[in-house]
Amino acid sequence: VISTRIRLARNLADYPFPARLDTKTRVAVNELVRDAVPAAANLHYIEMKTLTQAQIVSLAERHIISPEFASSADGRALLLSDDEEISVMLNEEDHIRLQVMKPGLALADAYDTADKLDTAINDKLRFAFDEHLGYLTECPTNLGTGMRASVMLHLPALTALNRVGTLAATVSKLGLTIRGAYGEGSAPLGDLYQISNQVTLGISEKSAIENLKTIVLQLAAQERAARTELLKTVETEDMIYRAYGVLKSARLLNTKEFMQLASQVRMGAVGGVLQVDANSINDLMFTLQPAGINTLAGKTLDAHERDIERAKIVRERL
Length: 318
Description:
The chain has helices at 23-36, 53-61, 67-70, 107-122, 156-160, 164-172, 205-230, 234-249, 255-270, 278-287, 290-297, 303-317; strands spanning 3-10, 44-47, 77-80, 86-90, 96-103, 129-130, 134-135, 147-154, 176-180, 192-197. It contains twelve helices and ten strands. 47% of the residues lie in helices and 16% in strands.
């Protein structure tokens, strides 16, 4: 397990959904929510129009905002903590998309943090809520709890053994979905997958979290068992050392190649083959996406220049 995320969708009762608001009213909603957040939360208010496109895309690459939120800055704002653990997207699909991310498997902890901030905002603003349907959201699939709990998993062994498709079909029957790291329609670059609850209506937050945690632990156990078998072979060990050698020496690394090699090195790190910190590999996999490199460089690089810069940073870090 790489990380845990809890996201709550909320709307203000006195305003139509964001799709029906003009820019001026969206800004008014943003400021209402900003002023309702307790000062103790220490969240910075950022109008999306003040950020460069590279900065916006980099936030999406690091899962702080959604790709949909990154697609337009019109009347949108972000509340963000210094450690980027808490983020609140304002006027995405809903007025409020409150998100808490934690490293590792920390569903209860992440939900507790999100619930406290949600309650504090609700004490000052009236959320759109129905006795039978629960929290009202623009998309009917979020009705009820308005909660999406998700866990990021690194599954290189199960991917290599072509078992992920079967597992995805199985968990879908249990009200869960497995997708690529960047959500619906995204490819599992670096063997990273996101598993999350599909059901939000007629189920409590606690039940949804417990269900997800149970399945995640089973998937993790299956990945570890598959990894143990693969790591017994000299072919897998050779693959890991070759990947490590390329990352330490390469002068050019495109995104796809880097993610594949980083996945293999991370498997070697957690499997005890390499003396490499797995968390440092995690960090590289999320910060060295295209817009992330532009942000680190402080300028817009073309694809070739990014590949040079990515290889340079990887060499230095390893």
